[in-house]
Specification:
The chain has twelve helices and ten strands. It is an alpha/beta fold. Strand 4 and strand 5 (63-64) form a beta hairpin. The two termini are 32 Å apart. Bound molecules: adenosine-5'-triphosphate and magnesium ion. GO terms for molecular function: ABC-type phosphonate transporter activity; ATP binding; ATP hydrolysis activity.
Length: 278
C-alpha cells in the first residue's frame, strides 16, 4: 500500500531523515516515536508533500507520489489528510465551515472565500461532527471549543476529505490526559471502522503501545525500531531515545491510568463518556 524506499531529506548540513525504508502493506495504526529532532515530522510531512524528499521513493499503491505536481499532487494530498498538534483551525470561523475546509483541495478557493457550499457537503460535515460527538458545537466559533473538541473538529475536517491515510503530527501533545485519550480512541475507531491507515507521531511510549498496531522508532533520522508494541522493551526504548541518556519510562509517559477521571467534565459529552467507559 505505502512503501518508503531509501527516503532521505537533507536540510543544509543536517540529514533530517536518513534512508528510511519500510512498507505498510495493509490498513493499520502506526505510531512513530523518537526524541525531539529525530525526524518524525519530516517523515510525516514528506508523505503528503508538505516537505519534499531529497532522495528515494514513496510509493502508494505502486505509484511514486514524490514527482506529482499540480492537480495530481492535490489529489494525492486529499487522500492523505493531516492533523496537527495545534489543530490548525480557523479560530474565528464556525466549526462546520472549518470542517468544510477539508474539501479545499477538491472544491477550490472560491467556495471557501464566499462560504458557498453545496447542501450535501454541509449535511455530510454535520454527520461527521455527529459521529465524533460534537454536532451541537457546529455553529460555534472554533475558538470557543475546548482543545479536545478542537482536535475532534480537525479530525472531522480530515474525514471530510474521505482520506485513505490520516497523518497526525503529535495530535495529543497539547491536550490534557482525558482529552488525549478521547482523541486517540477516536483515531483508533476511525481506523477500525473505516479501514483507514493512521500514522501518528507520538511523544509518549505508552500511547504508542496502547493504541498502535505497529511502532516505528527513529533516532537521528534513521529508523532504529520497527515492530509490534510488544517488542518495545526498555532496551529497545533506550536504543530509540539514546542509551547515554538518563532515560526513564516515566519521562515519556502520560500516566492516564493514574488520574482520577474528571466525571463532571464528561457528563455533557456523551461521546466522551461512551469512549472512556471501557
Ligand atoms: N525546515 C527546516 N529547515 C531546516 N532544518 C529543519 C527543517 N525542518 C526540520 N529540520 C531539522 O531536521 C531535523 C528533524 O526535525 P523534525 O522536525 O522532523 O524532528 P521531530 O522528530 O519531528 O522533532 P520534534 O519531536 O521536536 O517535533 C532537526 O534537526 C530539525 O532541526
Ligand atoms: Mg515534530
Amino acid at each position: 500500500m505505502l512503501s518508503f524506499q531509501n527516503v532521505t531529506r537533507v536540510f543544509g548540513q543536517s540529514t533530517a531523515v536518513d534512508h528510511a525504508t519500510f512498507d505498510i502493506d495493509r490498513p493499520m495504526m502506526v505510531g512513530i516515536i523518537g526524541a525531539s529532532g529525530a525526524g518524525k515530522s519530516t517523515l510525516l510531512r514528506m508523505i503528503n508533500r508538505l516537505t519534499d524528499a531529497s532522495d528515494g521513493r514513496i510509493l502508494f499503491e505502486g505509484q511514486d507520489i514524490l514527482p506529482l505536481k499540480g492537480a495530481d499532487k492535490r489529489r494525492w494530498q486529499s487522500q492523505c489528510a493531516m492533523i496537527f498538534q495545534q489543530f490548525n483551525l480557523v479560530p474565528r470561523v464556525d466549526v462546520v465551515s472549518n470542517v468544510l475546509h477539508g474539501l479545499l483541495n477538491r472544491r477550490g478557493l472560491g467556495a471557501t472565500i464566499f462560504n458557498l457550499w453545496p447542501r450535501e457537503d454541509i449535511s455530510r460535515a454535520i454527520a461527521i461532527l455527529d459521529r465524533l460527538g460534537i454536532a451541537e458545537q457546529a455553529a460555534k466559533r472554533a475558538e470557543a471549543l475546548s482543545g479536545g473538541q478542537q482536535q475532534r473538529v480537525a479530525i472531522a475536517r480530515a474525514l471530510m476529505q474521505d482520506p485513505k491515510i490520516i497523518l497526525a503530527d503529535e495530535p495529543i501533545a497539547s491536550l490534557d490526559p482525558m482529552n488525549a485519550q478521547i482523541v486517540m480512541r477516536t483515531l483508533r475507531q476511525i481506523h477500525e471502522e473505516d479501514g483507514r491507515t493512521v500514522i501518528a507521531n507520538l511523544h509518549t511510549l505508552d500511547t504508542a503501545r496502547r493504541y498502535c498496531d505497529r511502532v516505528i522508532g527513529m533516532r537521528k533520522g534513521r529508523i532504529v525500531f520497527d515492530g509490534v508494541p510488544e517488542l518495545l522493551t526498555p532496551a529497545a526504548a533506550r536504543e530509540i531515545y539514546g542509551a547515554g541518556h538518563d532515560f526513564s519510562e516515566a519521562a515519556t509517559s502520560t500516566e492516564i491510568d493514574a488520574l482520577d477521571r474528571p466525571e463532571a467534565a464528561m457528563r455533557d459529552d456523551a461521546y466522551a463518556a461512551r469512549l472512556l467507559a471501557d
